[in-house]
Design goal:
There is one protein chain. This protein is of the alpha+beta class. Helix 6 packs parallel to helix 7 and helix 12 packs parallel to helix 13. The radius of gyration is 27 Å and the shape is globular. The termini are far apart.
């Protein structure tokens, strides 16, 4: 029984195909195909023909080789679970899912050319699911979400609801051709975010079983309030033979999951809110009640994983228009964390300001330690009372002094948590609980952002403090995870989702009351680098890697998940740094938003001059970083990041302006040269070779940049222009 095409839409450079089995034409699934590859798609084989299958008794034959992956997957409490060894591995594909049937499908087009396809599925047991796929003007990734509504007269409890599900991978081969599909993911660990993993389906044991019966499934994600702990919420599937890659990404601040699923020839992928089995989540819908899944972004491209990531980054641009106007020039940040290590004072901030005056630094950020510590603990956050020993005249006096010297003063808050020793520690009524007890992780308890009292308390302690003290920059930190969830009316996972929704609601309130405030998203460096948090902030800390040799590697890896203009990279400078070490650190900051720290007040005059040159060059190149295409990376670093070998180069290119620059770093492996392919169609020349020992960069044959004379752990920036 063949697959039939229910509907096709040409959206941008993508063919959006809704397909169904001919024997169940209302059971639709979604396939994305590059428009230029439309004629390359093939009809999947009908039945398995391997000898081990055809040798089966006649009553077992034929065995179908394909299936249409449903557009939406759900599991409803009380319904039968899927067979074929799925229990405990996945809740996809059960009777609740198979009971959904197509009711309607409608295309809507806005005046700006944005398109929305709304597909409504209904089930006899009383569930209606509305699947929305939207392509907005100027974006190359589709936004997808699912809204479930209880149409029955009794409560229904959801235990799984996918945001997206894509099937038919790959549509360019009729059978299960081995070695063809590669799975791309980004691992994440503290101070080592974004490590790329590429493995075959076979490596992950996702081959079809010999008779297509047993479920093969890889379910991964994270459980808790740090969405980038362990993995980034991102997946790529590459057909290496066709040269096509599918990408998917989730936008949510809490527990999530992505699944790779296979029973037949073709692969299916899905993802969304972590389900009951993985994330302790279930949601009871009263009659008439609805629940909307978190948003997902999906795409397909004739290209590799990096090309898919560039498309998945396109929706990140729209929220940036709401940022303060000054952010459009990508101002340089100085954060004193690696200067005082938690002991900022009015005096040391003014010493830094004097040294940085006129340097091109805009934001001067006071990090942890400005608030009162009653006892001996390093952190006693929660009360947010100014430490008068360090700031005898209060924060406003320091902020006024910084503004008088041309800086926008910034301050650090970890406002979602409370530490022992603070008066707030005893306000347990307004904190998250688990099993009836205040939820504590290490030395942290967590405010309950479902509680209006918490919002008003922090409006006074945070928002009013920012207003009263003329603060123009807020660094939001968050340094441990809630874990599986906490007490609530329904499930730990749903309670966690509601709490984090409250956190984001408070952030939106901060933005409303202080529209010119610049907000930095930091969570132990990079553990909240996901779209829903990034949409609320001007930039995100790339990592807590401050002075380690892997900073260039982490910063470049994060280009797959963050626009460089939103990725804040540390350059920590020490009085003992050699010119080579200073340049290595400063060059890494050209990979994103430059954030300086360290001993600026102790640097030699020659070192200060070099730092000022770097800032001046960064500000000159910022328009390329702001408006250019996705960076292109060349790397050979070996398996270790803490002990990197080889070298790396990253090309930033603005094709409209005809300008480019290359950030390069050499690591420990012997080798004296680096070659970088340059954008075709122009004649290029070296405009500036910024490094501590310049003169080794040259364009050869108008095709490649050659950098010679490399030394271990050196770096630099080569500026390129048209001949």
């Amino acid at each position: 029984m063949p697959i039939i095409i229910h509907a096709e839409f040409e959206l941008g450079d993508t063919l959006v195909r809704y397909q169904a089995p001919a024997d169940a034409p209302t059971s639709v699934g979604l396939v994305l195909i590059p428009l230029a590859y439309r004629e390359r798609t093939v009809t999947p084989r009908e039945n398995l023909t391997e000898d081990c299958v055809t040798a089966l008794p006649a009553w077992m034959l034929p065995v179908r080789a394909w299936e249409v992956d449903p557009l939406v997957h759900v599991h409803v409490r009380g319904q039968t679970h899927a067979p074929a060894f799925a229990a405990g591995r996945t809740q996809r594909g059960g009777p609740a899912t198979l009971g959904l049937r197509l009711q309607s499908q409608k295309r809507e087009t806005a005046d700006d050319g944005s398109t929305l396809i709304r597909t409504v599925l209904v089930a006899d047991y009383g569930l209606e699911c509305t699947h929305e796929l939207e392509l907005r003007a100027g974006e190359s990734a589709f936004r997808v979400r699912t809204t479930a509504r209880n149409t029955s007269a009794a409560p229904l409890t959801l235990e799984l609801l996918t945001s997206f599900s894509l099937g038919g991978l790959t549509p360019f081969v009729e059978a299960d051709e081995p070695g063809r599909l590669k799975v791309h993911r980004l691992r994440s660990a503290w101070s080592a975010e974004g490590r790329h993993e590429a493995r075959s389906l076979e490596d992950l044991q996702l081959e079809r079983s010999w008779v297509g019966y047993g479920v093969s499934c890889e379910r991964f994600g994270q459980v808790g309030s740090m969405p980038v702990s362990g993995w980034f919420p991102l997946l790529g599937i590459e057909d290496e033979v066709a040269g096509v890659t599918w990408g998917a990404r989730l936008a949510l601040p809490g527990s999530w999951q992505i699944e790779l699923y296979r029973r037949h020839d073709q692969l299916a992928i899905s993802g969304g809110q972590a389900d009951r089995e993985f994330g302790h989540w279930w949601k009871c819908l009263a009659p008439g009640e609805t629940f909307a899944s978190p948003e997902a972004w999906v795409t397909v491209v004739a290209g590799d994983f990096d090309a898919a990531c560039a498309r998945l980054n396109s929706p990140l641009k729209a929220p940036l228009a709401a940022q303060p106007a000054g952010e459009q020039t990508l101002p340089v940040v100085f954060n004193e964390w690696c200067t005082s290590w938690g002991s900022p004072t009015h005096a040391n901030l003014l010493a830094l300001a004097e040294r940085l005056h006129g340097s091109g630094v805009t934001y001067m950020v006071i990090d942890d330690g400005w608030a009162e510590r009653i006892g001996d603990s390093f952190q006693q956050n929660g009360d947010w009372v100014v430490n008068r020993r360090s700031f005898p005249d209060g924060l406003r006096a320091t902020a006024e002094a910084l503004r008088a010297r041309g800086f926008t003063p910034g301050i650090w808050f970890e406002f979602e948590v409370v530490n022992p020793g603070s008066k707030a520690w005893e306000e347990t009524t307004h904190m998250l609980h688990r099993d009836g007890q205040p939820l504590q992780v290490g030395t942290r308890r967590f405010w309950d952002f479902r509680d209006p009292w918490v919002h008003e308390y922090l409006a006074e302690r945070l928002i009013q403090q920012l207003k009263d003290n003329l603060i123009g920059y807020l660094k939001i930190d968050y340094n441990d995870s809630i874990g599986l969830g906490h007490d609530g009316a329904e499930s730990p996972g749903e309670a966690l989702r509601q709490h984090l929704d409250g956190v984001q609601a408070f952030l939106r309130r901060v933005r409303r009351e202080l529209p010119e405030l610049v907000i930095e998203n930091c969570s132990s460096g990079g553990h909240r680098t996901e779209p829903s948090m990034m949409a609320l902030t001007a930039m995100s800390s790339f990592s807590d890697a401050h002075e380690s040799p892997d900073i260039p590697l982490i910063a470049a890896n994060l280009h797959r998940v963050a626009l460089p203009r939103q990725s804040q990279v540390w350059a920590v400078l020490r009085a003992t740094d050699s010119p080579q070490r200073l340049t290595y650190s400063l060059a890494a900051a050209f990979l994103g938003r430059m954030c300086l720290s360290g001993e600026m007040h102790l640097l030699s005059p020659q070192a200060v001059k070099w730092v000022r040159e770097a800032i001046e060059l960064y500000r000159e190149l910022a328009p390329i970083l702001l408006a250019g295409e996705a960076p292109r990376r060349t790397v050979d670093c070996g398996p270790s990041w803490q002990h990197p070998q080889g070298r790396q180069a990253v090309l930033f290119h603005d094709s409209v302006a005809g300008r480019a620059y290359v950030v390069w770093h050499d690591f420990a492996k012997p080798g004296a040269t680096l070659e970088v392919d340059l954008p075709a169609g122009r004649e290029w020349r070296v405009v500036r070779d910024w490094t501590d020992q310049p003169g080794q960069a040259q364009v050869r044959g108008n095709k490649r940049l050659h950098i010679g004379g490399l030394r271990p752990f050196s770096g630099g920036v080569v500026v390129l222009g048209r001949v």
